[in-house]
Design a protein that fits this description.
Elements (H helix, E strand, L loop, with lengths): L5 E11 L2 E4 L5 E5 L2 E2 L5 E2 L8 E5 L6 E4 L8 E5 L4 E8 L2 E5 L3 H6 L6 E6 L36 H13 L6 E6 L9 H12 L4 E8 L6 H10 L4 E9 L3 H6 L6 H13 L3 E8 L6 H12 L5 E6 L2 E2 L3 H8 L10 H13 L6 E4 L9 E3 L6 H15 L25
Parallel strand pairs: 11-12, 12-13, 13-14, 14-15, 15-16, 16-18
Antiparallel strand pairs: 1-2, 1-3, 2-10, 3-6, 4-5, 6-9, 7-8, 9-10, 17-19
Helix pairs in contact: 7-9, 9-10
């Protein structure tokens, strides 16, 4: 077995959203020129980038990723021992690195900290109102992700102002993205949609929009309006894909096909609009192999970001009733380690430049039936990274002949 080639060793005191500090401490970053894969074949992981680094000798749980070249600056995320990264450049006592998580993705667009504020703008869905079905998706209860300030009797501006108060006590200089999250936020007549979007953009401190919707609810005239809006403000459209299997989509009463997803994502990205996707792992009828296969299928789409989370059974939903009637038809990830291994397999098959916004979702305990792991998002990510190190795993490792590099992500809503 060949030994890993080491170009030089750099002692670091912290990891900064693209920068490593040079100091005489125990934690180190190792700069690599070649890497040894698990199968024994040595591969050049750096042929299209600058030098590759790896965190080693970590005494504590992790190294912090910070927003500026100072150990007192804002923490954006963490790296555990064994995490690999691309070194872009060196400036004084800091190395700029590549760490492709969602907060760092946002920093490419904004020179300040940005936080999403969820909104409930009073929309519905075509599979709720009879247009394509009744009752909505079988797993859905929007109460699981609506904060207390999200109430339809409140205006968009009021929800945003209350959301700002919720976050501003910790980061007074923070800016905000208005996140149209509940239900289908493009499912209305155009003029009404424009009024809601533009009301949000008029709120002080709001610097852009994130619009959650379904792939069958993006009419051409709306897309043309969003294309123009995108020229003047930050905009991301986030599609609820959920699954690449039409059989699964029918079973959960989505009311659209995967072909609808392909068309919507391609049309949106072709307009120059940042396009995100959302999938659920563990939907009934899907196996480990079919879920991992889905990663490669989604990688063919021009997605910029992807949210992943586990299936959660929520009280009051049709799926919860189905589970009571036939629990054998479900495979819930009651053990978090099983889900972690699935996520790693999934991530290894993803396109390596996809920004992974999150891996788990947390529903209120009073609504959640299962699974309940008792972990915060950042705790899950730390365990995921540790397991990835143990397995020698990284995003894109099994994605065709793609460039090999690590991409970890952390939920933008969590803080240490």
């Amino acid at each position: 077995m060949k030994k890993r080639k080491i170009k030089k060793i750099i002692a670091i005191s912290g990891v900064i959203g693209g920068i490593l500090a040079l100091n005489s401490v125990k934690a180190h970053a190792v700069e690599l020129t070649d890497d040894l894969s698990n199968d024994g074949h040595e591969q050049n992981i750096n042929s299209r980038s600058s030098n590759k680094g790896q965190v080693v000798n970590v005494d504590s749980t992790y190294l912090r990723i910070r927003a500026a070249a100072s150990t007192s600056s804002e923490v954006l995320g963490t790296m555990i021992e064994g995490t690999r990264f691309n070194i872009i450049s060196k400036s004084d006592q800091w190395y700029q690195i590549q760490y492709n998580d969602f907060p760092t993705f946002l920093r490419k667009h904004f020179p300040y900290k940005v936080q999403k504020i969820s909104l409930n703008a009073g929309f519905t869905c075509p599979n709720r109102d009879g247009t394509k079905g009744w009752g909505g998706c079988t797993y859905c209860n929007n109460q699981t992700f609506n904060p207390d300030y999200c109430r339809t009797e409140k205006s968009i501006a009021t929800q945003l102002e209350e959301g700002k108060c919720f976050f501003a006590h910790k980061y007074p200089e923070m800016k905000y993205l208005a996140y149209f999250q509940a239900y289908t936020n493009t499912y209305a007549e155009l003029e009404g949609l424009k009024r809601k979007y533009e009301e949000a953009l008029q709120v002080d401190g709001v610097v852009g929009l994130v619009i959650g919707t379904r792939p069958d609810c993006m009419p051409e005239e709306l897309l043309q309006y969003l294309e123009e809006l995108n020229r003047h403000t930050f905009l991301m459209v986030e599609y609820g894909i959920e699954s690449a299997s039409d059989e699964t989509l029918r079973r959960i009463n989505r009311g659209h096909t995967y072909a609808d997803t392909v068309e919507a994502v391609q049309r949106t990205a072709a307009c120059g609009i940042l396009t995100g996707g959302h999938v659920i792992l563990g939907l009934p009828g899907e196996t480990h192999d079919t879920m991992v296969e889905q990663a490669g299928i989604l990688s063919a789409l021009p997605l910029s970001t992807l949210k992943i989370h586990q299936l959660q059974l929520i009280r009051g939903t049709r799926m919860a009733h189905e589970y009571e009637e036939n629990p054998e038809g479900f495979h819930l990830f009651t053990e978090v380690d099983e889900y972690i291994d699935l996520v790693i397999d999934y991530v290894e098959h993803l396109r390596p430049d996809l920004v992974l916004e999150r891996f788990v979702s947390q529903s209120p305990k009073e609504l959640l039936i299962a699974p309940d792991w008792g972990l915060k998002n950042y705790e899950f990510v730390t365990r995921l990274q540790k397991r990835m190190k143990e397995r020698g795993a990284y995003q894109g490792k099994k994605y065709r002949d793609s460039e090999k590099r690590v991409i970890f992500a952390e939920d933008n809503f969590t803080t240490e």
